[in-house]
Amino acid sequence: QMVLSEKVNQLMEWASKRSVIRMNGDKFRRLVKAPPRNYSVIVMFTALQPHRQCVVCKQADEEYQILANSWRYSSAFTNKIFFAMVDFDEGSDVFQMLNMNSAPTFINFPAKGKPKRGDTYELQVRGFAAEQLARWVADRTDVNIRVIRPPNYAGPLMLGLLLAVVGGLVYLRGSNLDFLYNKTGWAFAALCFVLAMTSGQMWNHIRGPPYAHKNPHTGQVSYIHGSSQAQFVAETHIVLLFS
């Protein structure tokens, strides 16, 4: 009981300072793997260092931080569950211990027993949105987390700017609004929108891929992604040009 109490107090102290507890091999073995334990630990295995060039890791980390913050600052916060992270460059021995060769990966280490098949999050199937992660956490731990996202004013600001521009044009050309009935202008705008969407510009906005990839060993630059499930920004520009 004394050992368990010390472990819980240590995790609570760290969680009070940072919603996602960063762990190396020693901390992981002592607080996650070794018994006794009456708490669950959700661990994100990732590779966030710039030289790893893991764009998905950064995006998943942002959603993971939102989920952990939602739990940490919730009125229902308890020591029943903790959120942690093991970066490859800080805990490569943990990756080897678990025979893990990909990142990001989310695993729930339950309060009792070893992780089962369902305790590994299906990232490719469910995505890494905080809301999806919260549903998975509720299924594995019975802890329901209400995701609270920080306010984003970019959308309303851009909409207001667009309305201001349109309103300014209407005001300046109040006596001559024939340009609103110009079919060629509307057709050109619609064509640009269609080409932008079909070439993958929305993918760029959502996933934030790099413009191209430079092999650090050979120096060769690739403009076309090797996987059919991903693409570079340069690739979408090539498709746009062909279209």
UniProtKB/TrEMBL annotation:
<keyword id="KW-0732">Signal</keyword>
<keyword id="KW-0460">Magnesium</keyword>
<feature type="transmembrane region" description="Helical">
    <location>
        <begin position="184"/>
        <end position="203"/>
    </location>
</feature>
<keyword id="KW-0813">Transport</keyword>
<keyword id="KW-1003">Cell membrane</keyword>
<dbReference type="InterPro" id="IPR036249">
    <property type="entry name" value="Thioredoxin-like_sf"/>
</dbReference>
<keyword id="KW-1133">Transmembrane helix</keyword>
<dbReference type="GO" id="GO:0015693">
    <property type="term" value="P:magnesium ion transport"/>
</dbReference>
<protein>
    <recommendedName>
        <fullName>Dolichyl-diphosphooligosaccharide--protein glycosyltransferase subunit MAGT1</fullName>
    </recommendedName>
</protein>
<keyword id="KW-1015">Disulfide bond</keyword>
<dbReference type="InterPro" id="IPR021149">
    <property type="entry name" value="OligosaccharylTrfase_OST3/OST6"/>
</dbReference>
<dbReference type="Pfam" id="PF04756">
    <property type="entry name" value="OST3_OST6"/>
</dbReference>
<feature type="transmembrane region" description="Helical">
    <location>
        <begin position="153"/>
        <end position="172"/>
    </location>
</feature>
<dbReference type="GO" id="GO:0018279">
    <property type="term" value="P:protein N-linked glycosylation via asparagine"/>
</dbReference>
<comment type="pathway">
    <text>Protein modification; protein glycosylation.</text>
</comment>
<keyword id="KW-0472">Membrane</keyword>
<keyword id="KW-0325">Glycoprotein</keyword>
<comment type="similarity">
    <text>Belongs to the OST3/OST6 family.</text>
</comment>
<keyword id="KW-0256">Endoplasmic reticulum</keyword>
<dbReference type="GO" id="GO:0008250">
    <property type="term" value="C:oligosaccharyltransferase complex"/>
</dbReference>
<keyword id="KW-0812">Transmembrane</keyword>
<dbReference type="GO" id="GO:0005886">
    <property type="term" value="C:plasma membrane"/>
</dbReference>
